[in-house]
Amino acid sequence: MNDIWNPWHGCRRISEGCLNCYMFRIDAARGADGGKIYRVKNNFSLPLKKDRQGNYKIPSGMTLRVCMTSDFFLKEADEWRDAVWQMMRLRPDVHFWLLTKRASRIRECLPPDWGDGYDNVSLNVSIENQKRADERLPILLDIPARHRGAMATPLIGPLEIGRYLDTGLLEEILADGENYGGARPLRYEWVKSLYEECASRKIRFTFCGIGNEFIMNGRVYHVPKAYQHAEAQRSGLQYPPLGREVRLQPRCAKCPKRFCCSGCTWCGRCGSDSAS
Hints:
alpha/beta, three-stranded mixed beta sheet
């Protein structure tokens, strides 16, 4: 996944995974109300924007994660969704990755020409614990789609989803911990169990990050956000395996975001060439 598109912003908490939602915390830190839902004017038409040469700013082949500071199937966004479906139709060369906690609203919000699904759209549901997996996955699996997946983020309890994986309808499972204030712990055995369920069925499993508090072999690890993604990659809990060594790079000493940046590529955009 390469980029994010937020055509609207703001949300409503509806389940356990929402407790420490990063969007609400970030908004609160800048004095904004995360419960205020609005269309993002300067970003709404992102897939159709072009540069001065007439080329799309979002190039062909890119994957866009949609509504990562909201929920694509949020009721308050019903008036804007048709325009977004239209943009997805106009950009069949871009893959749109949708994530929702509102699985019960998916079917009623699909466009009239959905049919068996769009080739360039993936429907994904959040499965933060067993209760929500058993609630949302049956709904997702009953909806026609070309691409389906699930994201255990934040993973706050053990999961057993083998019976859903056995349908052959889920392409990928992702897992991550919490990394903001009040973060609940992520246990190694929870991730390992999911990894084994996916690997045994040759279904892609991506361990995105270990979170602020990671418990393994009875030991509690508190890891800066800059290293959480790399540590997840180093865990060996990725299917297919990465096939390369993941090294921990030093955080940039002068970057103002060095304590909150994911640090997954250490791109040097902060302009610092020294390490902390």
